[in-house]
Amino acid sequence: MRTKLFSTKFALITLILLVSACNLKPKNQQADEKSAEENWIQLFNGKDLNDWDIKFKGHELGDNYNNTFKVEDGLLRVSYENWDEWNGKFGHMFYKGEFAHYKLRVEYRFVGEQIANGPGWAFRNNGLMLHGQSAESMELDQDFPTSGEVQLLGGNGTDERSTMNLCTPGTNVEMDGKLIEQHCIVSKSKTYHGDGWVTVEVEVRGGESFRHFVEREEVMYYEKPQLDPRDSSYDKLLPSDGNKIVLKGSISIQAESHNTDFRKIELLELVND
Q: Measured on CA atoms in the order 157, 159, 160, 163, is the torsion positive or negative?
């Protein structure tokens, strides 16, 4: 009886030690193991842009003006090497289809100098345009798709400048139960100077909420993305049921005058709880 009791106690202690050991794993390691089990879709396949549609201001859909969006060395590059100077032609590249509930993870870096005469605000500036209108619905001379822009910014080597901010072309959001109508809202992230890679993530819950993460740290939260009645595209994009809350939409990246590299753009679809 004593031997059986000892064996039971030994087995229980062993189980507790194993569980404790698992819990003592670094959070980053736990997150990596969890990601390996999840079915992430590679929006950028490292080879080509076949699953993307390109739209530049003043150009028809599909015209990759000056070969600005391209793939080199396994990287998706927003490149201004074929431009002489900035001319106001903003570009966007849209992934096929629409998404509602998902996580989007991106690894990006800014490279080199901004093209001559680029806007000051566009220095080391790109963006993830989420819950956006379709590429096909954009007007010929439209600057930006109606969307929520998760703004990617780099520092100038001296001043503070957060990344993963929010800008709202044609849209508004709510924060702490209040409607926010200002165009850009600053996140809590630190500044990323230089040409190093930065990993960011957005958790999107349909028309309910968005969370921004930089290097796995949450830096912004907001709710109820919605069309802005003040915008010229409002009537065109408002659904027939009159609900201005944006429940889903396109995903696109930008070309705004600064060279940008992306080495990963991946998406995990989430169950709508």
A: negative
Dump pLDDT digits (tens) for 45-98.
999 999 999 999 999 999 999 999 999 999 999 999 999 999 999 999 999 999
Residue in the block written with tokens 């429940």: 247
pLDDT category of residue 208 using cuts at 50, 70 and 90? very high
> At 7, which helix (H) or strand (E)?
helix 2-23
Residues 185, 179: Cα–Cα separation, whole Å:
12
Verdict on whether the full-model pTM lies above 0.90: no
φ/ψ of 149, rounded to 5, equals -95, 115
- Could you give the CA distance from residue 67 to residue 51 in angstroms, rounded to a whole number? 16
- Domains detected in the chain: 38-269 (2.60.120.560)
Residue for token pair 């870096």: 109
* Separation of alpha carbons 129 and 150, rounded Å: 6
Backbone φ, ψ for residue 169 (5° rounding) = -65, 110
